[in-house]
Amino acid sequence: MIFNFLHFGGFKMSLVNDYFLLYHGITFEQNLDVEEIEATIDEDTFTIFALIVSATRKNFDKYLPLTSFKTLCQQLNVKSPSSNNELNHLQHNIVQAILSNKSKQNISILHSSFEYLKSENIINNENYNKLISLFDYKELDLIEENNNLANNINKHDAKKSSFKVLKSKIEDLLSELKNDLSNSEILDELKGTQNYLDNQKFSIGITGVMNAGKSTMLNALMGREILGSAVVPETANLTIVKHNPTDNAKVFYWNQQEWDRILKSAEQLESMRDFVNETNRIFGDELKNYIRPVSRFDEVDINDLSSYTSAESSGKKCNLVKYVELGSKLDFLSDGIEIVDTPGLDDPVIQREEITKEYISACDMMLHLMNVSQSATLKDVEFIIDALLYQNISKLLVVITRADTVSKEQLEEVINYTKSSIERQLKAQNKDSKLDYILKTIKFIPISGKMALLHRTGREQEAIDAGYSIEDTGILEIEQYLNETLFGSNSQKGELVIQSSKNQLQKIIEKQNSFYNYELKLLSKSKDELEKELVDFNKRKAVNTRIFQAMSEDINYYKNDSKEYINSLETFLQSELIELQNVIKKRVVNDVRYSFEKTKKRPENSRIKVIIETAIKDGIIDVIRDYRYKFIKKSQTIGEQCEQKYHDLGFTIGHKNENFDARGFFQDDFKAGFLTSNNEVLITQIVAAVSKSKDSKINELDREIELLIKNQFSSIEEDIKVKAKKVSGLLIDSFFDTLNAPLKTFEQKLKNDEKALESQINSFEENDKNKAQLSIDIHKNIKKLETMSVTIKGLN
């Protein structure tokens, strides 16, 4: 029977396990009801303990018949064993008794007894070394310095550490493991964990209306005037700033499909029409050199970047630019920070707002800037609410810029006004209940960007003369907030990254220890036993390989089934979005009808706008929630089927041997990125239709709105389908990687065990001479890895 060949996780070593593995070369489980040791613990007891635990399967038959041995067992108040199996059970209980009554004095008696047994040739030098290694003072935590050190470590670790501290500790462990281990597959896994840590990005989104002071604040934050800033609007394009050893810039242009959408929007919106006309006038036939089926990008000199991104540049290349990637060697970016600097929220090109929302929804936190002299515009308030309720932003810092131009009292008034504006807008959207959540998620910090920039660019005296120290500017408070949010002890993303890295390391250690355990077992065998082990191994290998292939085929079948199910969910999405169109139409028409009945007038345009936007956003969220439910239900079924089918073989994908829960596995999915479409054209069209409506022609309005929604919803529908399919595909791949992990581990263990077995046979004579030392060395490696495992668990 093949049993539990897949389950390597959760193996915890103890002194008992160590004893049987190192001294006897076996793993031992109690299956007999043997009396516990109830003798009085004294010097004589530990002397008896030493004799009994020194017996092995090779010499036990010399011990058991002896009257003196039986007398010693009587002194322990236990029945004298009559077989090796009964002896092992007695030894098991004795090792536990040693552990329960360990002290420097008692362990010293053990060591003296082992010394005596060696001198009398009752045990050989090899077994003596193993026993001394097992019952070592340090291993049993009987060295006072170590206990104090452990206590200090525990006290220190009780306090939650920051992401950077924990990352550094994990990197130290990775480095240590890399130096200690030689298995190529294990080393590849260590490298994968290191790459995972190195490639984590922490994104900060910067938003605000034009002239909010984004570029000035960012330049101060980075300590260099890297982004254009002026009194007039400057940066017209979304700019992604990343760390790079050398300064560089890439400019990406609209592709043909995106430009066609811009042209279509221009048919309905005057501001877009002006933008398109200006672009056509300036570029003419040259436009086709920039707008291509696949987005073109140019690498440009960072000093010439403003000619591509400045709204004030006469060339107006910014009209053709979709976004910019900027690489800089600034220290601020060196910890994996990426900054997404967005164009103004009041940008007339609505497609830029869509790109902004795409990037913002993936950011770890957001800074929203408001000019103190024009703060809390309707656009500001709408964007804040949208970001927190619909774009998955969990941290929002509202920065009040140009704080040096007003008094502290006026600053406080601006903050209070912003809060009351948010409350009013929430009431207009019937979302009053979200007010407390939003106000708890927001933090306000005033800043004088100009003064901060002077301090950071070598002109601090000018700022000091104006009455502003670096602390007065607000830049230090912003930096502290960013650092704590992204890398502090309560960083949400940081905690996920650290936990994932810890899990990866624990799996690597468990896997390596399973390899070591097998090597220890082999070292205890004779050459004949090794050759028989190889024959048995090959028989098991053939059976296990067939089971492995069957499971692999099953998992591939489930994966294909899942992908087909995702395709069927596209039909579900389509029908749900058609129903959503009907809901939007009904809400608008019913409100118009109600308004005519109650007030004899059409509803306000602002009210119609809120109705449409709220219906679309809430509706899409509901559709995606239902989609997610169906996706998770399917994944849950597959996970349960796999666990049930292969349960007897130890197959498990649950945590701590609990049943698999797909909701927990997919806890961070489908949360963001589905509400990025700009609905300005649709809103404009419906508002225009409502403004011409008549009480007597509601049915005509109903038909007109239905047609408008149908025409505009096609792009929204396509966008959601593409995103849902992409997210689902990535999650399915991740899910089935997890399902396949035990199989890969099993296959890797088979190869490693076979290699170890063949190596032990081929080098038996050489190993046999010093196998005690080899066993002790391997045992020390196991203990070292166990200590690392405990250290990893204690990281917090």
From TrEMBL:
Gene3D superfamilies: P-loop containing nucleotide triphosphate hydrolases. InterPro entries: Dynamin_N, Mitofusin_fam, P-loop_NTPase. The keyword Transmembrane helix does not apply. Residues 204-402 form the Dynamin N-terminal domain. The lineage of its organism: Bacteria, Pseudomonadati, Campylobacterota, Epsilonproteobacteria, Campylobacterales. It comes from the Bacteria. Keywords: GTP-binding, Hydrolase, Membrane, Nucleotide-binding. It holds the Pfam family Dynamin_N. It comes from Arcobacter acticola. GO terms for cellular component: membrane. It is found in: Membrane. This is GTP-binding protein (Dynamin domain). GO terms for molecular function: GTP binding; GTPase activity. Its main location: membrane.
